[in-house]
Design goal:
This protein is 45% helix and 6% strand. By secondary structure, the chain is mainly alpha-helical. It has 2 domains: 135 residues, no CATH class; 105 residues, no CATH class. A hairpin with a 5-residue loop joins strand 3 and strand 4.
Length: 256
């Protein structure tokens, strides 16, 4: 270690991982205002934070699969925190947001734009609801960042029209609700069709349109779907959809 440097703490690494998930891969640099802001919060230089984000990239299996190596000098603690974070996202994402809120001198509710009018005043019901809402916000930010706020089917880039959709539904697989490889960035219309089995994505990342929609040749609906049949989705920079989740959707939800 160079003179004047200090070891990263567990909390600092968790905060860096939180930011890693919520930034597009191409913005993990020291000029990014969000990197600069985190550096200020933890009293580090932006270059140090940016370098740590690139360190994490070297541990990301979805990047390794694309031949992107990241920085090579990750520490044992880096690896430990990475594994802990992604093995228990239902807990770690929420805890990282609470940690960030404390440094921002605010509440986790305000940090995630959760209105008090939507919450019970107190009690376990409130705590549970806040955790769900915070985790949903984290999931959305992370999925949109992975896809650079681009619908994987149509290429739409208007955030208000985009959904962080689950491949394996939220209500069916609690363990993978926050799994970022169980998410796709998709516009609201096509997400509805995906949920109802009118389209799917095969395990080679090709869009398949249900025959139910293909039959509507004279219906305006067909214009929004049939032209995408057989086309590859726009792949994310990280957190590539897990093929086992896609297979589940193909086999149990899709209506050929």
């Amino acid at each position: 270690m160079k003179e004047g440097q200090r070891l990263w703490t567990r909390d600092e690494l968790i905060l860096a991982l939180n930011l890693y998930c919520k930034l597009p891969f191409g913005r993990l640099h020291s000029r990014n205002p969000e990197v600069i802001h985190l550096a200020h919060l933890i009293d580090r230089k932006p270059n140090a934070v940016a370098y740590k984000l690139v360190n994490f990239a070297s541990l990301d299996p979805s990047l390794q699969a694309r031949g992107i190596k990241g920085a090579s000098n990750t520490s044992n603690l880096d690896k430990e925190i990475w594994n802990e974070f992604f093995e228990s996202l239902n807990t770690s994402s929420f805890e990282s947001e609470k940690l960030l809120a404390r440094l921002e001198n605010t509440t986790v509710e305000k940090l995630n734009n959760i209105s008090e009018e939507e919450l019970p005043k107190e009690g376990k019901t409130r705590e549970q609801l806040v955790k769900v809402r915070v985790n949903q916000s984290f999931f959305r930010k992370s999925i949109l960042a992975s896809y650079s706020s681009t619908c994987c089917i149509t290429g739409i880039q208007q955030p208000e029209l985009l959904i962080a959709g689950h491949i394996k539904p939220w209500g069916i697989d609690e363990a993978n609700r926050l799994n970022l490889r169980n998410g796709i960035c998709i516009n609201a219309l096509h997400d509805k069709a995906f949920e109802n089995g009118l389209l799917t994505i095969s395990d080679d990342y090709t869009v398949r349109i249900s025959s139910i929609l293909k039959k509507l040749k004279d219906d305006p609906t067909s214009d929004y779907f049939n032209k995408y049949d057989g086309k590859k989705i726009i792949l994310p920079s990280r957190f590539l959809p897990d093929k086992s989740f896609l297979e589940y959707h193909n086999q149990t939800k899709f209506k050929p």
